Amino acid sequence: MARPKISVIGAGNVGASVAQYTVEKELGDVVLVDVVEGIPQGKALDLAQAGPIHGYDSRLIGTNGYDETADSDIVVITAGLARKPGMTRDDLLFKNAEIVGSVVEQVVSRSKHAILILVTNPLDAMVQLAWKKSGFPTERVIGMAGVLDSARFRTFIAQELQVSVENVTAFVLGGHGDSMVPLPRYSTVAGIPITDLLPADRIQALVTRTANGGAEIVAFLKSGSAYYAPAASAVEMVEAILKDKKKILPCAAYLNGQYGTKGLYVGVPVKLGRKGVEQIIEIKLQADEQAAFDKSAAAVRELVDKLKL
What we know:
Helix 1 (13-24) packs parallel to helix 2, helix 5 packs across helix 10 (287-306) and helix 6 (146-161) packs across helix 7. The protein is α/β, with parallel strands linked by helices. It is globular, with a radius of gyration of 19 Å. The protein has helices at 13-24, 39-48, 51-54, 91-108, 123-134, 146-161, 200-211, 213-221, 228-242, 287-306, and strands at 5-9, 29-33, 60-63, 74-77, 115-118, 141-143, 168-169, 172-173, 181-182, 188-189, 192-193, 247-256, 262-273, 276-280. 41% of the residues lie in helices and 20% in strands. It folds into 2 domains: 5-143, NAD(P)-binding Rossmann-like Domain (Rossmann fold); 146-306, L-2-Hydroxyisocaproate Dehydrogenase, Chain A, domain 2.
């Protein structure tokens, strides 16, 4: 039986890290695609040579074209410009829309049954664009954002309470960026809501730090943005899908009335399995939470409208 095929479009830091984590978990064979000559070939060869040490037999191919991606099971799209200091996510909008649009056309013509996972920012709008361009059913076009945002929130909660990250679950809704909506009452340490363990002002500080998590890293790195945690987040989604785990993860999914939102990709908890998004988990929000979610969805819709999607 052939191994699953995972194509990663964009061989920058995020894409290369996705390839690395994917083969380390031996989830399948990887095709790494990039426009820059030599970069995907070199990184693929380098990762292949780590195989004997890490003990994976996954094949890695680096290429500047798309023919090698044919019949992919999953395509992870990281291609696009990264944020530079002082750049808003909106500055990226039109440039990355152009890049993602052309990538989707190339990929979809060769892999009719693939599941697309988008990582490119501004995330929610790029997922909407990819879905429109692909003609795929909504459950096979998904955005990676909530897994990363909740991982950041979990990190900060664990550090604050000095507990294992494995004890911490965090709940994040809404668009990826400044308008994200963390839900402290559903965020727990060993099942105990953090609202029982931390005062409101400390929780708010952690929420704010989470919402600005990407910018904090950009400010440190100066040239470039986060990549280890974003890549790990995308690979958690890849694994849930390929292993049909039915894992509940926060992802950008298409809402058709859930959470009071219609016809828009926004971050919500979903069940991920071999078909992609197999269920959207809808929970009852309190008035203030619903208001924050609506505001977040409105911010996403504004970008989608700018792109005339």
